[in-house]
Amino acid sequence: MTRFRAALVAAVLAVLPGTAGCVVTSSSSATGPLVASGPAPQSAPAGDPGAPAEEQIARAVFDRVNDEREARGLEPVAWNDALATVARDWSAEMADTGEFEHQDIRALLQGDELSGFRAVGENIFTATGPVPAGTIHAGWMRSDGHRANVLNPGWDRLGVGVVCAPDGSVWAAQEFGRTAGADRPAVASSTPPVDPITRPTDDGPTC
């Protein structure tokens, strides 16, 4: 039987008044200068049937996030390659070590890799066997803290990274971001209700 787990964390620089997620870290300052503007929106990977399974799953999860946000009257999140790289790299790290844990989000915000971001929230997921994109998404949506990230009105960017490990396990991460100067409400600390989940079915591409 395939089993899965999910977890989340959020970190916010002190320039923001709110946080999201169950586990929160914060920093009063960054090691480098604060950037006045954030990265421009980017195009999500095509996720065509001929693309690698990991890319197809990432695109399917990304689309499901925006379907949920649209259904609840929230602005969509745009794809960000830097966040996706962070998500892929961390999914690969978890797969290599077998350790299901969050990375140091505070350190990410203080470094150069995510320059232009003021806050980041992370959802992670693992399953012992292949599962479709819908299972990953629905698992996050049925968990209060994860859903709070998916439906947080303060995020404006998202990157998704998925790893299909040689042993058949699946590892995934979502990195939500708030860019400098984002025209969005503050990152919220409230938890949206479970229903309605727009994309609850266990379907979509799989490893």
UniProtKB/TrEMBL annotation:
Residues 1-20 form the signal peptide. Residues 62-172 form the SCP domain. Keywords: Signal. SUPFAM superfamilies: PR-1-like. Residues 27-52, 180-207 are annotated as: Disordered. CDD domains: CAP_bacterial (cd05379). Residues 36-52 have a biased composition (Low complexity). Pfam families: CAP. It comes from the Bacteria. This is Uncharacterized protein YkwD.
